[in-house]
Design goal:
121 residues; mainly alpha; rod-shaped
């Protein structure tokens, strides 16, 4: 093993290098702290977004139930409307039948009156 001699210039360079390394480590530590702070803020924002996402999913599920209920009501309304149309058609047929029956009755009454007014026929 050989013993190496360190002169002042070499020691100064070593000291400067160590100082620069220390400065860089300090800078890296500051940057690391900043990154940790940003990551913590990011985690908080992600948690908030997760909560909002859950709320949004609940709203979407609720909306889906409402839409299904509205679709069911619409289907029931269509069915009831169809039944009403069918009933109206039946009633119109009954009204036409009553009108025909009334005309016949009126004709009979008019004929009887005419025969009563005109006994020669």
């Amino acid at each position: 093993m050989s013993i190496e001699q360190w002169d002042d210039a070499r020691l100064d360079r070593l000291a400067n290098t160590v100082e620069r390394v220390g400065d860089r480590i300090d800078g890296l530590a500051i940057r690391l702290d900043t990154m940790v702070d940003r990551m913590n803020a990011f985690d908080i924002r992600m948690d908030a977004l997760g909560a909002k996402l859950e709320i949004t999913a609940n709203i979407a599920e609720s909306n889906a139930r409402v839409i299904q209920a509205l679709a069911n009501v619409a289907a029931e309304s269509r069915e009831e409307r169809q039944q009403l149309f069918e009933r109206m058609a039946e009633q119109q047929d009954e009204i036409r039948g009553l009108q025909t029956e009334n005309r016949r009755t009126l004709d009979i009454l008019l004929n009887q009156r005419n025969q009563g007014d005109n006994p020669t026929n």
